[in-house]
Design goal:
Number of strands: 0
Helix content: 25-40%
Strand content: under 5%
Largest sheet: none
Shape: flat
Number of helices: 3
Structural class: mainly alpha
Order of helices and strands: HHH
Distance between the termini: 86 Å
Radius of gyration: 21 Å
Length: 78
């Protein structure tokens, strides 16, 4: 029997994720944790879709203010 070739494992750096992808990963991991804790599939899905059931640390990462920029009002009030 021939040996299998070792497969390369693809990895993605954390900064390569968009905020939407990070949020989707959080929801999926939350769902899997609820299932592992004994929730039925429909119950776990219900908790994941309801924002009131999310932990307080759960959410989108905030961008530093340097990345967002600032709004400066340069208009003169005459």
């Amino acid at each position: 029997m021939a040996k299998r070739k070792p497969q390369k494992v693809k990895t993605v750096r954390y900064e390569d994720y968009t905020p939407l992808e990070i949020h989707a990963i959080q929801i999926r991991e939350f769902y899997l944790a609820l299932r592992k804790a004994g929730f039925k599939p429909d119950e776990a899905l219900g908790v994941c879709t309801d924002r009131m059931g999310w932990p307080d640390w759960f959410g989108l990462p905030e961008k530093p203010s340097e990345d967002i920029g600032t709004i400066i009002d340069d208009e003169d009030d005459d």
